[in-house]
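Q: A small favour: would you put together sequence and structure tokens for a protein?
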Amino acid sequence: MKASGKSLPAVLTIAGSDSGGGAGVQADLKTFAALDVFGTCAIACVTAQNPSKVSRIYAIEPRMVAEQIMMVCSGFSLAAAKIGMLYSEPVIRAVAQCVSQYRIPNLVVDPVMMSSSLDQLLRPDSVSVLCWEIITKAVVVTPNLVEAEVLFGRPIPSLEAAKEAARDIAERFKTACVVKGGHLKPESKKAGKTVVDVLYLKGKIHEFKCPRVDVTETHGTGCTFSAALTAYLAKGKTLPKAVEEAQQYVHDALKNSVSVGTHHPLGW
């Protein structure tokens, strides 16, 4: 019997597994499902964590990461993909080779370096290879403030500095760049009520604003933003429109956060 279901674009996340369910591959797949795209995954590392702490990280053997990607690409015609936590240089190089070999389109790179609980999620000796082997293959890179400061090479104390960082990162790595403003220190009490994300694309700065949501936990917001951006690109949105809608999606997910035990993860 022929299936009568609707047709969905296929997307891929290459990232780490979060045992707490709020970030990483788990957050990506929830976001893909909520935005009506078909999510596939390649797990690059396994973490033992909850929203408060990461206790252990185990990098998957690079050959196994590559084989996951190969099987997904041989079974699906991908419309877009995102890369999140890769952790180690051998895994980064394996993923970079696959991205080139399978010509993965609409690649969104979330340069995961540190968790919201301030645990190191990228080996310090792997930053350079992530930049030159992965970010240079992206259509857009989506650092948070801490990650943008690492890529920019200096502090980002203001919105103007965020714009300068987005421009510098984009031009240096030949991609577009969104510097996410959730952690940016407000320049006034009024400014503190608004989150401003900054996109640099083809010589132009775009600002995206939304009301700040007062919450106790933001675990998984970076993963969710990049996954939503990936989904919207897969559905044919332009990059500025995809950024706008991804920001709104994260805002709504924070606003609709749920109570689970002692934690308050994003709503979906």
Summary: The two ends are 33 Å apart (CA to CA). The longest helix spans residues 239-255. Residues 10-253 form a domain with the UDP-N-acetylmuramoyl-L-alanine:D-glutamate ligase fold (CATH 3.40.1190.20). The chain has one domain: 10-253.
